[in-house]
Amino acid sequence: MSKPTVAIVGRPNVGKSTIFNRIVGERISIVEDIPGVTRDRIYSSGEWLNQEFSIIDTGGIDLGDEPFLEQIRQQAEIAIDEADVIIFLANGREGVTAADEEVAKILYKTKKPVVMAVNKVDNPEMRSDIYDFYALGFGEVFPISGSHGLGLGDLLDEVLKHFPEKTTEEYDENTIKFSLIGRPNVGKSSLVNALLGQERVIVSNVAGTTRDAVDTPLTRDGQDYVIIDTAGMRKKGKVYESTEKYSVLRALRAIERSDVVLVVLDGEEGIIEQDKKIAGYAHEAGRAIVIVVNKWDAVEKDEKTMNEFEEKIRAHFQFLDYAPIVFLSAKTKKRTHTLLPVINKARESHNLRVPTNVLNEVIMDAIAMNPTPTHNGQRLRVYYATQVGVKPPTFVVFVNDPELLHFSYERFLENRIRDAFDFAGSPIKIIGRARS
Ligand SMILES: Nc1nc2c(ncn2[C@@H]2O[C@H](COP(=O)(O)OP(=O)(O)OP(=O)(O)O)[C@@H](O)[C@H]2O)c(=O)[nH]1
Ligand SMILES: Nc1nc2c(ncn2[C@@H]2O[C@H](COP(=O)(O)OP(=O)(O)OP(=O)(O)O)[C@@H](O)[C@H]2O)c(=O)[nH]1
C-alpha cells in the first residue's frame, strides 16, 4: 500500500531538517547500521494519529552549483512533483523575506494542498510575529518551534486533513510489483524493454499517490506483474532529474511501492561504492531482493568468471547474502527469461509463513548445537519463538533479556532458520523480546 507523502519546502535555515527529524522521531536512529551505507536524511516515514506517511526534506536535496534562488525553486518543484501535501516552512524571527515570496510563487502553481508553518516561534509572546505570513495567501498559518517541539501536533492535524482518500490497494494482491534500481547506465531501461519484448504493453499511467509515477504492467505465464515507476528510470528533462539525491529519492519511493527490488549491476564495469549504497537502501526497506548482473555479453569470460563475480558480490554486499544473483544481458536477451521465475520465488519467500512448532524445533536444535552466549556472567535464555509477520518474515524470539541477544547470535539463529526453511530472496527480521 502506498503511503501519502508530505514534503517540507522553504528557504535555507528556516529549520526544515529540524522539523523533519522531529516528525520522523526515533525511527531513523533505530535502523540498524550497515557498514558502508550512509544515510541521506531526505526521506523517511512519520506517523501521526495512527496514520503513516512518507516525508521528504527537500532542503536535503543538493542541487549542485545552481544559484541560490534556482535551488529553492527546484526544491519547491520537487515537492510539487513528489508530495500529496506540502508544508511550506518559514522563519518567524525574520518575517516574510524575498526568498519566501519566491517559494510561494512556485507553490501558487500547484493544486496540491499547501500548509504554511512558521518556525522558531519558541514562546507564546512571539505568536504575533506570524501575522505577516497570512499575506502569502495559504490560509491558516501554523506557528511552531522545532527546537522546543511546539505546535507540531496542530500542524500535523492540518496536514492529515489534506491526505487523499484512503487509497485501496493499487493492484490486485496477486500481482507482483517490482522495481529496478541501480546507478545510471547499468541498463535498467534496456532490461525493462527486454522483459516486455514482443508483448510490449503501452505504458499506462496508473494513478498512484505520485502523479508522476508510471508503472508498466506485464503478464507472463499467467502471472501478472507491475514494474514500478518506469518513468523514474527515464530522464524527463527537468533540471533536477539528474541530481544524485533526487534519483535516490525516486528510487526509495519505488522501493517502497515494490514487493521485489532488482538491484541492477553492470557486469562490464564491476561493482563500485554507489552500487553498495543503492543496495543498502533496498535491504533497509525490507523488500525481497534479486541481484541482477547485466551486460554479461560484454564480459570476457571463461568457466570461472561467473563464480568469481559472485564471490565479489558476496564480499561487497555481505548484508545481501540472501539475495539470488542472475547474470544476463538485456542487449542480447541471453538469460533474461531466467529472471521472472527468480522474482516469483523471492516474492514467495517474502510471504512465507512457517509453523510455530517446526520453528521452535529448529531454534531449540540450534541452541543445543551452539549454546547461548553469556555477558557479565548472565546467560542468554531463549524460551520460544514465533513468526509475527511477513513481507519481510519477522520472528519474535522470547528471551530472558533482549540485551543479551547480540547481533552475532541473532545472525546464527537467522542462518539456522534459513537452513530449515527456504527464504531465498527475502530478508528476515528477528526481534528479541523479554518474556513477561
Ligand atoms: N530558535 C529556534 N531555532 C531553530 C528552530 N528550529 C531550527 N532552529 C535552528 O535553525 C537553524 C537551521 O535549522 P535547520 O533545520 O538546519 O534548517 P534547514 O531549513 O534544514 O536548513 P538547510 O538545510 O540550509 O535548508 C539551526 O541552527 C537550528 O538549530 C526553532 O524552532 N527555534
Ligand atoms: N553490452 C551491453 N550493453 C548494454 C546492455 N544493457 C544496456 N546496455 C547499454 O548500456 C547503456 C545504458 O543503458 P540504459 O538501459 O539506458 O541504462 P539505465 O540504467 O536505464 O540508465 P539511466 O536511465 O541513466 O539510469 C546503453 O548504451 C545500453 O545500450 C547489455 O546487456 N549489454
From TrEMBL:
<dbReference type="GO" id="GO:0042254">
    <property type="term" value="P:ribosome biogenesis"/>
</dbReference>
<dbReference type="InterPro" id="IPR027417">
    <property type="entry name" value="P-loop_NTPase"/>
</dbReference>
<comment type="function">
    <text>GTPase that plays an essential role in the late steps of ribosome biogenesis.</text>
</comment>
<keyword id="KW-0547">Nucleotide-binding</keyword>
<dbReference type="InterPro" id="IPR005225">
    <property type="entry name" value="Small_GTP-bd"/>
</dbReference>
<dbReference type="InterPro" id="IPR016484">
    <property type="entry name" value="GTPase_Der"/>
</dbReference>
<keyword id="KW-0677">Repeat</keyword>
<dbReference type="InterPro" id="IPR006073">
    <property type="entry name" value="GTP-bd"/>
</dbReference>
<dbReference type="GO" id="GO:0005525">
    <property type="term" value="F:GTP binding"/>
</dbReference>
<feature type="binding site">
    <location>
        <begin position="229"/>
        <end position="233"/>
    </location>
    <ligand>
        <name>GTP 2</name>
    </ligand>
</feature>
<dbReference type="Pfam" id="PF14714">
    <property type="entry name" value="KH_dom-like"/>
</dbReference>
<dbReference type="InterPro" id="IPR032859">
    <property type="entry name" value="KH_dom-like"/>
</dbReference>
<feature type="binding site">
    <location>
        <begin position="10"/>
        <end position="17"/>
    </location>
    <ligand>
        <name>GTP 1</name>
    </ligand>
</feature>
<dbReference type="InterPro" id="IPR031166">
    <property type="entry name" value="G_ENGA"/>
</dbReference>
<dbReference type="InterPro" id="IPR015946">
    <property type="entry name" value="KH_dom-like_a/b"/>
</dbReference>
<feature type="binding site">
    <location>
        <begin position="57"/>
        <end position="61"/>
    </location>
    <ligand>
        <name>GTP 1</name>
    </ligand>
</feature>
<keyword id="KW-0690">Ribosome biogenesis</keyword>
<protein>
    <recommendedName>
        <fullName>GTPase Der</fullName>
    </recommendedName>
</protein>
<keyword id="KW-0378">Hydrolase</keyword>
<feature type="binding site">
    <location>
        <begin position="294"/>
        <end position="297"/>
    </location>
    <ligand>
        <name>GTP 2</name>
    </ligand>
</feature>
<keyword id="KW-0342">GTP-binding</keyword>
<comment type="subunit">
    <text>Associates with the 50S ribosomal subunit.</text>
</comment>
<feature type="domain" description="EngA-type G">
    <location>
        <begin position="176"/>
        <end position="351"/>
    </location>
</feature>
<feature type="binding site">
    <location>
        <begin position="182"/>
        <end position="189"/>
    </location>
    <ligand>
        <name>GTP 2</name>
    </ligand>
</feature>
<dbReference type="GO" id="GO:0016787">
    <property type="term" value="F:hydrolase activity"/>
</dbReference>
<feature type="binding site">
    <location>
        <begin position="119"/>
        <end position="122"/>
    </location>
    <ligand>
        <name>GTP 1</name>
    </ligand>
</feature>
<dbReference type="GO" id="GO:0043022">
    <property type="term" value="F:ribosome binding"/>
</dbReference>
<comment type="similarity">
    <text>Belongs to the TRAFAC class TrmE-Era-EngA-EngB-Septin-like GTPase superfamily. EngA (Der) GTPase family.</text>
</comment>
<feature type="domain" description="EngA-type G">
    <location>
        <begin position="4"/>
        <end position="167"/>
    </location>
</feature>
<dbReference type="Pfam" id="PF01926">
    <property type="entry name" value="MMR_HSR1"/>
</dbReference>
